[in-house]
Design goal:
With 944 residues, this protein is an alpha+beta fold. It contains 29 helices and 36 strands. Strands 10, 11, 12, 13, 14, 15 and 16 form a 7-stranded mixed β-sheet that branches. The chain is globular. The two termini are 60 Å apart.
Length: 944
């Protein structure tokens, strides 16, 4: 019987659906295991072979854990909001929901063909009102919360209001935008609007003025990772920095907990380090500098308080509110020009670009330690969101300050004995302090650091700053609050209406607030976001419903928020919703949350290290503060799959002709390499007829061949439609089957590494599956397995495989597992093994990798239940012990032949057998051996 993968895969995919094989419920009698993939955004192009890599890897692990007896949750859904569907709507007028549903249906069709063990009954879509109900609910809870640093958790805002009513800001330690103070009497005397404005300073979800990446062409704010080289990733439109009123989440309040949590989870060291750097904790000192000839002052933050005597200039971020205050009239034009140029660069570009730029404000600040007037400059290497947006520049001991000072010819004062700053700054934090203050100069303050170590000088300066009220000791974080609004249509609407220009939440019982219908998906003519196009988009507080905007009276009917939530909103708690997706009363029930706890294995790309993986950890910690999520960390173990790159093919056209020359002959001609569709190339051989039909201009093409074939060139590049190297998994499945695709993707290399797709090697995996099939079925349709007792060799072969595959799956070394499968099947074929015992173990081991063929063979062995419900075999070390050992027999150090000996053979037995061996006599040649060296279990060397 031939291996008919098409019939087998269709049969079992249908059977899995009918029998609800992958449906899972909480089961207190079983240990749980939660496997999760970062869910996909369903694009119009569908899946290419690179997309399923992580899904296959996690699916293998999920099936493996189920076979070990775990109750496995392995859900899938769709991150369904996104700019592409909205841009398509703007171009065509088709509602983004229609585009998204069509794309989801295409994805689902492709995913089903690959044979995943997803529990589709738990599917979520972020654009479904039943889903974003809980995104809106979480936002409202954040709005109605503040972060109390004393108890180190979120608390209801009502507690803070009651404290203000009784004590004002006395004895509060709260995460806030700016530090303000007032008495209880002052609070109680304020109007409702004034109170709401003050509370906005403390809310975890708040409205704030912040610098954003604004794309006028798209009419929306973009995240840093959506901007490349000053243009939008989507469409390549110009992006500028702009200060806008935005919804924000006070992620910075959780900075230390985000850092501490990294020590409790099983992530790679490199990804943890990426997050640590992004959070950017630094302990330092805030110091106030007065502006010369002014009663104003500003604060800087420094981790090197010991360098105060070496400050030779100050630098403000271009966005700093101080810039217009310190810019003198004669410098206004030059400063304005510089600010305009800076707007076109994202913060990420400014951090990575080392090019020195800046402009002098014309003003000076007074160094509180030397009394010197130092110039105040403006430069884009200082960021407004980190520290105070102003720095003291110590060029002798900071590389960026040094480059700036050299470029603009500013003083450089070394502060460490013996350091040479003639060519570069001295950044080391070791040495003895000098020039603090400079010798021979009348001291401005009574602090002397000369002769101290740097560590001692930092401590002394901190103490001096606090005791002399020049500033304070502070811990700073680079982590910013998250911008949480976008000016686009296709996103979660905010459950917010505006009364007296202040935001209020619609009643929780009225959620979800659904996205309205609009005629156009572009901003309005007056510049409002697309929701401004909706005629029915106002909130009636008495009726508790959406009504026509024409009814707005600001008494009972108020305008609704026109912004929508950003892309990461829906992905920040989806792992919790999968636990209880049909619960319409709460995000997740206490019972479901306590059973599933958190994600045991999360699989996705490293590109989310500073986006989704920060925001979802923050979101979960917030919910943990309210006992909604039992675990503080959402993802216990994280595996980052690599990328499958494209393997592009090229044809070579002779210039000024329509003649194409084969790869091996191209150097004889002046040619232009042209990308060709890899789907009309096999083993780098071009299908000439298919090429002629590929494009009209190639219909009459002529070819110069090698040995009757056209050989294409190749290169490894990103898989992209523009390079015609996208391989559709449907085509692979049609030709080889889903099990071959699954195994081949894993066979390409380690899961975590990027590797090129090369269809040339897929035949080997397909042949392996056919060889496996032939252990069960003869060509005459005879079923071969029998109830015979396994031989010692058969048991050794399969138990060697059990041990190898078990260890490899735990280590995600799937590529070496597949090699081991191939070796085992070869051995069993040579042994003519038909033992049901051995072959049953083999099928169960293969089931996570190739589920369709495994189900078919499992059934053929007489089982009536799914192979998914079998028991993972355990290896017996006794079967792996070697009975004999192969020794290399050498004469004067040169290997001549080998001999097998029992493992327990002693030295004397080995020597005697070697000397009496017929082959030995030839090499000894009647000489008397001087020495016989026996290296146990390896070598016998006869020295003549």
């Amino acid at each position: 019987m031939e291996y008919n993968f098409k019939e087998i895969e269709k049969k079992w995919q249908q059977r899995w659906v009918e029998n609800k094989t992958y449906h899972v419920v909480e089961d207190e009698t079983k240990k749980k295991y939660y496997v999760l993939n970062m869910f996909p955004y369903p694009s119009g192009a569908g899946l290419h072979v690179g997309h399923p890599l992580g899904y296959i890897a996690s699916d293998i692990y999920a099936r493996y854990k189920r076979l070990q007896g775990f109750n496995v949750l392995n859900p899938m859904g769709y991150d369904a909001y996104g700019l592409p569907a909205e841009q398509y709507a703007i171009q065509t007028g088709q509602h983004p929901a229609i585009t998204t549903v069509n794309n989801i249906n295409r994805y689902r069709e492709q995913l089903d063909k690959i044979g995943f063990s997803f529990d589709w009954d738990r599917e979520v879509r972020t654009c479904d009102p039943k889903y974003y109900h809980w995104t809106q609910w979480a936002f409202q809870k954040m709005f109605n919360s503040y972060y109390d640093n004393k108890v180190n958790k979120a608390q209801p805002i009502d507690l803070l209001i009651r404290h203000f009513e009784k004590e004002g800001t006395n004895d509060v330690n709260i995460a806030c935008t700016e530090e303000i103070s007032f008495t209880a009497d002052e609070w109680n005397a304020k109007t409702e609007k004034e109170k709401q404005q003050i509370l906005m300073n403390y809310r975890i979800a708040y409205l704030g003025d912040t610098m954003v990446n604004w794309c006028p062409e798209l009419g929306t704010v973009l995240a840093n990772d959506e901007v490349i080289d000053g243009v939008s990733e989507r469409g390549g439109y110009p992006v500028v920095q702009k200060k806008m009123r935005q919804w924000c989440l006070r992620v910075s309040a959780y900075a230390q907990r985000l850092l501490d949590g990294l020590d409790t989870i099983d992530w790679t060291d490199s990804l943890k380090e990426t997050q640590r750097n992004w959070i950017g904790r630094s302990e330092g000192t805030e110091v106030r500098f007065k502006i010369k000839d002014s009663d104003k002052e500003f604060t800087i933050f420094t981790t090197r308080a010991d360098t105060m005597f070496g400050v030779t200039f100050m630098v403000l971020a271009p966005e700093s509110e101080l810039v217009p205050e310190v810019t003198i009239p004669i410098q206004k034009s030059e400063v304005a020009g510089y600010l305009d140029r800076t707007k076109k660069r994202t913060e990420r570009e400014r951090i990575s670009d080392r090019k020195v730029t800046g402009v002098f404000s014309g003003s000076y600040a007074i160094n509180p330690f030397t009394g010197d007037a130092v110039p105040i400059w403006i430069s884009d290497y200082v960021l407004a969101g980190y520290g105070t947006g102003a720095i003291m520049a110590v060029p002798a001991h900071d590389s960026r300050d040094y480059a700036f000072a050299k470029h603009f010819n500013l003083p450089i004062i070394p502060l460490v004995e013996g350091c040479d700053v003639s060519e570069e700054s001295f950044d080391a934090k070791e040495g003895i302090v000098c020039n603090s203050p400079k010798p021979g100069i009348k001291p401005y303050c009574d602090l002397v650091l000369n002769g101290l170590t740097i560590k001692e000088a930092i401590a002394a300066t901190k103490e001096y700053v606090e005791s002399h009220q020049l500033g304070r000791i502070k811990v700073n974080y680079r982590l910013r609050d998250a911008i949480f609004s976008r000016q686009r249509y296709w996103g979660e609407p905010f459950p917010v209406y505006y009364k007296n220009d202040m935001p209020y939440m619609i009643d929780e019982s009225k959620l979800p607030l659904e996205l309205p219908e609009v005629d156009k998906y572009e901003p309005t003519e007056t510049g409002e976001p697309p929701l401004g196009q909706a005629s029915k988009w106002a909130w009636d507080i008495k009726k508790g419903e959406v009504v026509e905007k024409a009814l707005i009276d600001n008494i009972n009917v108020f305008p609704l928020e026109l912004y929508t939530m950003p892309g990461f909103a829906g992905s920040s708690a989806y792992y919790l919703r999968y636990m209880d997706p049909h619960n319409n009363k709460e995000l997740v029930s206490e019972k479901a949350d306590y059973y599933w706890q958190n994600v045991d294995l999360y699989v996705g790309g490293t590109e989310h290290a500073t986006g989704h993986l920060i925001y979802s950890r923050y979101w979960n910690k917030f919910l943990h503060d309210y006992n909604i999520s039992v675990k503080e960390e959402p993802f216990q173990k994280l595996v980052n799959q690599g990328m499958i790159q494209g393997r592009s093919n090229f044809v070579y056209r002779i210039k000024d002709s329509n003649t194409f020359v084969s790869f091996g002959l191209k150097d004889k001609y002046d040619v232009t390499p042209i990308h060709v569709d890899v789907n009309i190339v096999s083993n780098d051989i071009l299908d000439i007829e298919a090429f002629k039909n590929w494009r009209p201009e190639y219909h009459d093409a002529e070819f110069i061949l090698e040995n009757g074939k056209y050989v294409c060139g190749w290169a490894v590049e990103k898989m992209s439609k523009s390079m015609f190297n996208v391989v559709n998994p449907d085509m692979i499945i049609e030709k080889y089957g889903a099990d071959t695709l699954r195994m081949y993707e894993m066979f390409l290399g380690p899961v975590e590494q990027s590797k090129p797709w090369d269809t040339n090697g897929i035949d080997g995996v397909y042949r392996f599956l056919k060889k496996l099939w032939n252990l069960f079925w003869s060509r005459e349709d005879q079923f071969l397995p029998v109830d015979s007792k396994p031989t010692k060799e058969e048991l050794k072969s399969v138990h060697k495989l059990i041990k190898k595959v078990t260890n490899d799956i735990e280590a995600f070394s799937y590529n070496t597992s597949i090699s081991a499968f191939m070796i085992c099947v070869n051995e069993l074929s040579q042994l003519k093994c038909y033992s049901k015992t051995v072959l049953s173990d083999l099928v169960v081991l293969l089931a996570p990798f190739a589920p369709h063929i495994s189900e078919e063979l499992w059934e053929s062995l007489g089982h009536t239940t799914s192979v998914c419900d079998a028991q993972w075999p355990k290896y017996n070390e006794a079967y792996l012990k070697e009975d004999t050992v192969k020794y290399t027999i050498s004469f004067n150090g040169k290997a001549r032949f080998t001999m097998d000996f029992p493992v327990e053979a002693d030295r004397e037995t080995i020597e005697k057998a070697v000397l009496s061996e017929e082959q030995s006599k030839k090499w000894i040649d009647n000489k008397t051996p001087k020495k016989i060296i026996v290296v146990p279990k390896k070598i016998v060397n006869i020295v003549l």
